[in-house]
Design goal:
591 residues; Jelly Rolls; globular
């Protein structure tokens, strides 16, 4: 009797727990929709993707490294009147650091191909949560740019509301999966095409990587399976790895010889457009860190792309040493040039010229400025849905650890404004770096000049070779490795007017460190206190994209007008950080 009573109590408790969990799983809107006999209605003007997990599972039971069965229904009655129902498939989690966040990203595969929201028939799809991007717009704006310039493969996407077991999960981006397919990357692995992801070696050192290769340039590359649900056998992987490594090493050797050697081995336009998109975003991962995708097509030609994963870019990630100026929050300086292939390409004048011409074309035809129109367009699209997103994930707007507390905005409108301001400054700075006409020095009058020896002096970690100051990087035990040498000059030289200060420099040969130099304008007030007013940094990319003299020195320029400020005196300062740089001279011109 006691045993039967205990069993009955346990059954009742189990039932109450199930009912209680179901109540938590259902949002009020979803509950009302079910009461009305429409369990898969749209909550907002966005299309609604309803996911029903099978076998009584809840969303917290979705694993990252294995799939579980589910059914999918897409509702878009507000826009097209279409509903795609009862699609059987599987779902799993995805991502690395993003999988640890409260709002999870997902990957799902349908049992049969379906055309979701007009993006073409396919089985595999990705749901990006964008939890770290308070605007939820950075990926969308970048993918849109990549699609618009039409020269690199970029995944299509749509914003959707996602429901799991009737419970609202927030705004997601439904995105095409990066794969070989007629609707996506139109290449055939059976014809020799291979997909790669470039990642730093350290990301695989703990668990190893059976499908990875390391090229002659020390580029660590992970081969991707031919398509979702299919894997190479061990014998096939061994053969493909050997063939891919041989081909990539051939291409790397050609890159070192110049355009005439490599022009038939790489898709030049994809290399340029991929770089421009990532340079705009100031994407640290694109420095061959991770999420850097590329592929060999059927003919063995190397393509860069697609662009992927920029939610913590555009001034949304402080990933460098806390006391330096070279971080993701600042609109100036580069990062994606650090990949071995790009370091080689930037030594080639043909590539540099083609990059600048392409940038100026995109500026002139409005492709770059269109990014601001797309931001406004997506803001309008999400306006109706974002209040539900913010109610579901209120802590997302409080996140500060991605970019620290330097830009502490805690509402959507302020975040969007910050994104647009950062992008404006980034475009202006890139335009100054990639446009030869921004400072025609030969048409200006020099008013003062100092040699590199005068700039550097006899300072630690420095040496003088004739009139050239050589700043050499030397390892230290300091955690941030920051070292600098500064010299102030042209004090009491500046009168009222517009000036250009120009540093003739070139980077050294050590590419394993950050070649980094800063030219700063400092104002001096009546009490002698100084304030940095303007600054512009230099890397080896700045050198590569600037006009050079007969000795190979490029020019870093800083333009200013005294009418913009109110100081007694002005000085210029050259700083060097973690760098191997030679400075020939510094000249002050008056316009």
């Amino acid at each position: 009797m006691k045993i039967r009573l205990l069993a009955l109590l346990l059954a009742i408790l189990s039932l109450l727990t199930t009912v209680s969990f179901a109540a938590r799983e259902k949002s009020p809107e979803a509950t009302e929709a079910e009461a009305a006999g429409d369990a898969v209605a749209q909550l907002t003007s966005l299309p609604a993707l309803h996911i029903e997990l099978e076998n009584g599972r809840n969303r917290l039971q979705i694993p990252r490294n294995a799939t579980i069965p589910a059914r999918f229904t897409m509702v878009d009655s507000e826009n097209t009147g279409e509903t795609v129902t009862n699609l059987k498939g599987e779902i799993r989690g995805r991502g690395n650091s993003t999988w640890t966040l409260p709002k999870k990203p997902y990957h799902f595969k349908l049992a049969a191909s379906a055309d979701l929201l007009g993006m073409g028939e396919a089985k595999t799809w990705v749901l990006l949560a964008n939890y770290w991007d308070k605007t939820m717009l950075r990926n969308a704006v970048t993918y849109d740019l990549a699609q618009r310039i039409n020269n690199i493969y970029a995944p299509e996407f749509r914003f959707v509301d996602v429901f799991i077991n009737g419970s609202y999960q927030g705004i997601y981006m439904l995105v095409e999966k990066v794969e070989f397919d007629d609707e996506r990357i139109n290449c055939d692995p059976e014809e020799g095409a291979v997909r790669f992801e470039v990642e730093m070696l350290y990301r695989h050192q703990s668990e190893g990587c059976d499908n990875c290769i390391i090229t002659d340039s020390d580029t660590h590359i992970m081969l991707k399976d031919p398509e979702e649900g299919k894997s190479y056998t061990a014998a096939e992987m061994k053969e493909i790895k050997a063939r891919a490594l041989n081909r990539l090493n051939e291409i790397e050797a050609e890159l070192a010889k110049g355009y005439d050697a490599y022009c038939d081995d790489i898709d030049m336009r994809s290399f340029i457009d991929w770089f421009i998109a990532n340079a705009l975003a100031k994407n640290y991962d694109a420095a061959f860190v991770t999420s850097t995708y590329c592929y060999l097509d059927n003919d063995g030609i190397l393509h860069m792309g697609p662009v992927w994963d920029v939610d913590v870019c555009f001034g949304n990630q402080d990933v460098t040493y806390p006391d330096t100026v070279d971080n993701g929050l600042n609109y100036y300086n580069y990062r994606s040039d650090k990949g071995a292939w790009y370091r080689c390409l930037f030594k080639d004048e043909a590539f540099v010229t083609a990059l600048k011409e392409r940038w100026n074309t995109l500026m002139e035809d409005g492709s770059i400025d269109m990014m601001f129109e797309k931001i406004d367009e997506y803001v309008a699209i999400l306006e109706d849905a974002r209040r539900y997103e913010e109610d579901e994930w209120p802590d997302a707007l409080e996140v500060t650890h991605v970019r620290g507390k330097a830009t502490p905005y805690f509402d959507w409108d302020s975040e969007v404004a910050y994104f647009k301001e950062w992008l404006t400054l980034r475009i202006d700075w890139l335009d100054s770096q990639w446009n030869d006409d921004y400072a025609p020095l030969d048409k200006l009058t020099p008013v003062a000049s100092v040699t590199g020896a005068d700039v550097g002096g006899k300072r630690k970690y420095s040496s003088i070779n004739g009139d050239v100051w050589n700043w050499r990087y030397t390892a230290t035990k300091k955690p941030n490795r920051k070292m600098f040498s500064s010299f102030s000059f042209f004090g009491d030289t500046v009168d009222d007017g517009e000036y250009v200060c120009s540093v003739a420099f070139k980077p050294g040969s050590n590419r394993k460190v950050t070649d980094y130099m800063m030219l700063r304008l400092v104002g001096v007030d009546e009490e002698g206190y100084t304030t940095t007013l303007l600054q512009t940094p230099a890397t080896h990319v700045t050198y590569a994209t600037s006009p050079k003299d007969a000795e190979g020195y490029g020019y870093l320029n800083l333009t200013f007008d005294t009418s913009d400020f109110d100081y007694v005196d002005y000085r210029f300062i050259v700083d060097a950080y973690n760098a191997t740089i030679s400075v020939k001279d510094v000249t002050l011109y008056k316009k």
